Amino acid sequence: MSYKVIIPEDITEPGKEFLREKGYEVVVVDGTSSQEFEEQAKEADALLARTAKYPREILEKMPKLKVIGRHGVGYDNIDMDYCNDKKIWVTITPNANSNAVAEHTIMLILACARNLTYQNRQLLLGNGWKTRNTCKGQEVAGKTLGVIGCGRIGRQVAKKAALGLDMKVIGYDPMLPADAALDYIERVETAEQVFAEADFVSLHLPETEQTRKMVNRKLLSLMKPTASLINCARGGIVDEDDLYDALEQGRIYGAGVDVMAEEPFRQDNRLLRLDHMIVTPHDAALNVETMDKMGMDAALGIHEALGGHTPSWPVNKF
C-alpha cells in the first residue's frame, strides 16, 4: 500500500529521499494556506511538520492522517488534543538538534558578556573606536550559569559551560526526579534561587500553561544588575513587557534570545531597539548538520508509525 506524506514547509533532501526509497509518495506544498495543500491534504496519510501552526481546523482537512513527524522538538504548534482524540501519532526529533541549540546558547552567553552586537553596530556607524574605551564586557570564567530546565539541551549547555568556559553551573527542573543525576550541574530547589544567584540565566523549557510567562517581573527583579537572560527555548516563556522594562531601566545587563512570543518577529517590537538585546531569528537548531538530521528523524518517525510500530520518539502513546 502506498502512503502519501505531505510537507508544507520544505526540508533538506535526505529525509525526503529516505521516504521515497521506502515507497512513499512525497508531496511538498507551499504552506498550509495554499490551494495545493487543500487538494493534497485530503489524501495525506502523514504530515512532516516544521514551525507552521496546526490547529484543529487545519488537521481536520486531513481525514486520513495517521502520524505527524515534527521536524524539531517543540510541539506547541500542534493541536495535541485533536491528535490524541483521533489517535494520530506525533513524533519529534530530540537527538537531532540538541548540540546545535546548546552551541547557540553558548554563543549568546558570550555575545551578551561582551555586548557584541552593540559594539558591532557602533563600529559600523563610525563610533566603534570610542566604544572600545567605554563599553567594557565581562569574562565568563568563574561566573555562575543558571539553567532552568535540565533536560537534554540544558545538560549539554551545562557541560560546555563548565568544561569549556570554566563556569559554575546551577540548575532547576521541577520535572526531573530529585535523585536524577545531573553532571556538571549543582541542583537547587527553586527557580528563584537560580535567578538570584546566576550571572547568566538560560531557559530550556517547553511552553505550556504552567511555563507561559513564568519569567516575569517577579523573577527578573531577583537578577543581578550585571546578569543576562538567555532564551533559546520558546518566546512565550518570557513576559516581554517585563523584560523590556528590566533592560530599559538597567535592572539587568542584557538578554540574548532566539525566540519571541510572536514569530516571525515584528519589526516594531520595541525589544529590538534596545542596545543590550541580542536577537537571532529562531535558528538555533538550523545549521547544515541538524537540518539533515531533523529531516531524517522526522521521516523515520513517520515510517515507523505507518509501518505499525511505536515510533522511537513519540509525544503521545496509544
Helix content: 25-40%
Main sheet record: 7 strands, parallel
N-to-C terminal Cα separation, in Å?
23 Å
Q: C-alpha Rg, in Å?
A: 21 Å
Tell me the β content: 5-15%
**Oligomer category:** single chain
Q: How are the strands of the biggest sheet laid out side by side?
A: 8-7-6-9-10-11-12
- Secondary-structure-based class equals alpha/beta
Low-confidence stretches: none
Q: Helix-strand pattern, N to C?
A: EHEHEHEHEHHHEHEEHEHEHEEH
Silhouette: globular
How many E strands? 12
Mean pLDDT: 95
Helical stretch tally = 12
Topology (SSEs and partners):
Layout: E1 4-7, H1 13-21, E2 25-28, H2 35-41, E3 46-49, H3 56-59, E4 67-70, H4 80-85, E5 89-91, H5 98-113, H6 116-124, H7 128-134, E6 144-148, H8 152-165, E7 168-172, E8 186-187, H9 191-197, E9 200-203, H10 217-220, E10 228-231, H11 240-248, E11 254-257, E12 277-279, H12 288-306
Helix pairs in contact: 1-12, 5-8, 6-7
Please give a structural write-up.
The structure is a single chain. The protein is of the alpha/beta class and 318 residues long. It has 12 helices and 12 strands. The chain has helices at residues 13-21, 35-41, 56-59, 80-85, 98-113, 116-124, 128-134, 152-165, 191-197, 217-220, 240-248, 288-306, and strands at residues 4-7, 25-28, 46-49, 67-70, 89-91, 144-148, 168-172, 186-187, 200-203, 228-231, 254-257, 277-279. Strand 1, helix 1 (13-21) and strand 2 form a beta-alpha-beta unit. Helix 1 runs parallel beside helix 12.
